[in-house]
Write a structure and sequence with these properties.
Layout: H1 30-47, H2 58-61, E1 84-86, E2 92-95, E3 107-110, H3 114-126, E4 129-134, E5 139-142, H4 156-167, E6 192-204, E7 214-216, E8 221-230, E9 233-234, E10 241-243, E11 248-252, E12 255-257, E13 260-261, E14 271-273, E15 276-280, E16 283-285, E17 288-289, E18 299-301, E19 304-308, E20 311-313, E21 316-317, E22 324-327, E23 330-334, E24 337-339, E25 342-345, E26 349-352, E27 355-359, E28 362-364, E29 367-370, E30 374-377, E31 380-384, E32 387-389, E33 392-396, E34 400-403, E35 406-410, E36 413-415, E37 418-419, E38 426-429, E39 432-436, E40 439-441, E41 444-445, E42 455-458, E43 461-465, E44 468-470, E45 473-474, E46 481-484, E47 487-490, E48 495-497
Parallel strand pairs: 3-4, 4-6, 5-6, 6-8, 7-10, 8-11, 8-12, 9-13, 10-14, 11-15, 12-16, 13-17, 14-18, 15-19, 16-20, 17-21, 18-22, 19-23, 20-24, 22-26, 23-27, 24-28, 25-29, 26-30, 27-31, 28-32, 29-33, 30-34, 31-35, 32-36, 33-37, 34-38, 35-39, 36-40, 37-41, 38-42, 39-43, 40-44, 41-45, 42-46, ...
Antiparallel strand pairs: 1-2
Length: about 525
């Protein structure tokens, strides 16, 4: 589409004269007609080297072709072509970039006024993107959802949900989505937009309607830096931010406080990602996923996510992942902290039918029914250099629970975790558990019939390499490793000692290299 906006005084570019082909019928002679056609063609070729072939259709030859009469060196810029922009005052601005956009986004300072912020986002979308620089330390209060028809979804979400329902028939019984619930306080992001927060805060008013702050639609690219989002509330997914399938976002130095998702089966109290998300150096604090099966009190990932140096505190979810839920998705977590989060499964982190990597991170003081620190279900959870300590589970897996999954645990410490069921440190059921270069130490299983304060393994297989299971205590033996219908392997460099009431004695499956 052309970006040319002509002024009243502008003139049209030079145009090529119309060509007229004629059969040259003279006195009814076909021979003369052929000669006439050749003469016209030869004359045209001599007059203009750009002349078309006589074999081209007449309709093509009669079209206006701007600017071809000028010599190449003298040719003026064609203001109707999309690679040129016009300022509206008769002057050519500059060649534009891809798709007619400027090569670089302009920077728009945004005064400390909510209406100005909304207007700047509307302008940025209209112009194909921009960088917005918020007023330093300003608070932008929002009291109403932004009224905007969403015409860019393209049915992608509906198509994905239909495919999921076909693959998982039980999902077809879920209540239909109500578009009226999917509201945002700011204009939907359709293009590449960067918001430099400068320490500003965007807040939903206490008595305002329910809405999140940002929806990043298919093809949109949001970069959000150095801003606080407070008190977002959505009846759908993403209490503050929703990145849809086909969209992307970079979140850096952002704090999301006290936001809520009421989605029945979705969640993401602070953020829901169904596209591509990079989140660095951010804090998600006091957010909730309160739907009947709410997932990801802090963040629900349903797409592709990479995270560095991000803190999750005091978040909660009804179902999976009090801090983070990676649900049918791919996610990587590096050097992050999960503290005092709560959910039914995976108080700190939950990986469900997903591929999740958690490296060099702290998971502490979280609580759940299953998997006080981390829960892995029908998924792959790759854990390396973790500290999982002082978490609690009321049913099983005080530190970690894995069910029908693969869990390699490397160079980690699992300590001080508690359950009222089995598996104070780790509970593994129908899973492949690999513990390498790690310590499982000082965990407790305190229920009346609790076993396996260090590890409780039922079905599946468990292997320990260069690891230590020390000082764990359960009510019923074995206190170190309790195995039922499982294969357990311990290499010569691993030790299982000083557990109470026994190390491995009492296990239904004998554990080689483990005594008493």
């Amino acid at each position: 589409m052309s970006t040319y906006r002509g002024s009243p005084g502008s003139t049209r570019p030079g145009r090529r004269s119309r060509w007229l082909l004629t059969g040259g019928l003279v006195a009814g002679s076909l021979v003369a007609g052929a000669v006439g056609l050749s003469a016209v063609t030869a004359s045209a070729a001599d007059r203009d080297p750009a002349a078309p072939s006589p074999a081209w259709p007449a309709t093509m030859l009669q079209d206006d072709v701007p600017g071809v009469d000028e010599a190449p060196d003298d040719r003026k810029p064609d203001r109707q072509r999309p690679e040129w922009r016009h300022d509206g005052d008769g002057a050519v601005d500059r060649p534009a970039g891809r798709n007619g956009r400027p090569p670089q986004h302009q920077v728009l300072p945004v005064p400390c006024d909510s209406a100005q912020l909304i207007a700047a986002l509307v302008r940025a979308n209209a112009e194909g993107g921009a960088t917005l620089r918020l007023a330093e330390n300003c608070t932008y209060p929002l009291t109403h959802a932004f009224q905007q028809a969403d015409e860019y979804d393209g049915g992608i979400r509906d198509a994905r949900e239909a495919a999921d329902a076909a693959e998982n028939p039980g999902d077809a019984e879920a209540p239909p989505r109500n578009p009226a619930d999917d509201k945002a306080g700011l204009p939907v992001i359709y293009h590449g937009i960067t918001i430099e927060g400068s320490g500003a805060t965007i807040v939903r008013g206490v008595h305002a309607d329910e809405f999140r702050f940002f929806t990043v639609r298919d093809g949109g690219e949001l970069t959000l830096k150095d801003v606080t989002l407070r008190n977002g509330r959505s009846a759908a997914e993403g209490g503050s931010i929703h990145i849809v399938h086909g969209a992307s976002a970079v979140v850096e130095g952002v704090t999301v406080l006290g936001s809520t998702s009421r989605s029945t089966e979705g969640g993401g109290g602070a953020i829901f990602n169904d596209g591509n998300l990079l989140i660095n150096d951010s804090k998600l604090i006091g957010n909730r996923a309160v739907g009947a099966q709410g997932k990801g009190g802090g963040l629900l990932n349903g797409g592709v996510m990479t995270m560095h140096r991000t803190e999750f505190r005091h978040n909660s979810a009804v179902s999976y992942g009090g801090g983070l839920a990676n649900f049918r998705a791919a996610g990587e977590v590096h050097s992050s902290t999960f503290v005092q989060n709560n959910a039914a499964q995976g108080g700190g982190v939950a990986s469900f039918s997903a591929r999740t990597k958690v490296f060099d991170s702290l998971v502490a003081h979280n609580s759940a029914e299953v998997g006080g620190g981390l829960a892995n279900s029908d998924a792959v959870l790759i854990a390396r250099q973790l500290t999982v300590r002082d978490n609690a589970a009321s049913v099983s897996g005080g530190g970690i629970s894995t069910f029908q999954g693969l869990l390699p645990l490397d160079d980690s410490v699992i300590s001080g975790n508690t359950t009222r069921g089995n598996g104070g440190g780790i509970h593994s059921e129908k899973s492949n558990l690999l513990v390498r270069g790690s310590d499982v130490e000082g965990n407790d299983a305190v229920g009346k019939r609790s076993q396996g304060a260090g590890l409780f393994v039922t079905a599946g297989s468990t292997s320990l390499y260069r690891s230590r299971v020390i000082g764990n205590q359960s009510t019923v033996k074995a206190g170190g490793i309790q195995a039922e219908r499982a294969q357990v392997k311990i290499d010569d460099e691993s030790v299982v000692i000083e557990n109470n009431p026994t190390n491995c004695e009492g296990s239904k499956v004998p554990v080689a290299h483990c005594f008493r």
